[in-house]
Amino acid sequence: MKIIGMVLLILGAQGAIRMLVDHDDAGLLGWLPGGFAARIAVYVVITIAGIALAGWGARNRT
Question: Other CB atoms closer than 10 Å to residue 62's CB: what's the count?
Fold first, then answer.
C-alpha cells in the first residue's frame, strides 16, 4: 500500500503544482469537466489520499 500511496502522492502533487503554474495544462485530468476548480480539487484529493495510504502503509509492516 505504501507504493500505491507514494504514486498517488507524486501524481497528485505534480498535477496540482502544474495546474497552479499553468491553468490551461490539465495533465491527466484534461477530460474532467468543470474547469480549473474541479481539476485542482481532484488533484488535492488524490494528494491527500496518497499521503494517507503511504502513512498507513508505513505503519502497517506485515
Answer: 2
Quote the pTM value. 0.86
Task: Give the residue from 33, 13, 36, 7 showing the smallest Cα distance to 23.
Answer: 36
Give the separation between CA 43 and CA 54, rounded to whole angstroms: 16
Could you count the other beta carbons within 10 Å of the beta carbon of residue 61?
A: 6
Q: Each residue of 28-48: pLDDT tens digit?
A: 888 989 989 999 999 999 999
Please report where in the chains the cell 494528494 appears, as a residue: 47
- What is the CB-side half-sphere exposure of residue 51 using CA atoms within 13 A? 8
Cα dihedral value 32, 9, 56, 1, nearest 10: 80
Q: How far separated are the first and last CA of the chain, in Å rounded?
A: 11
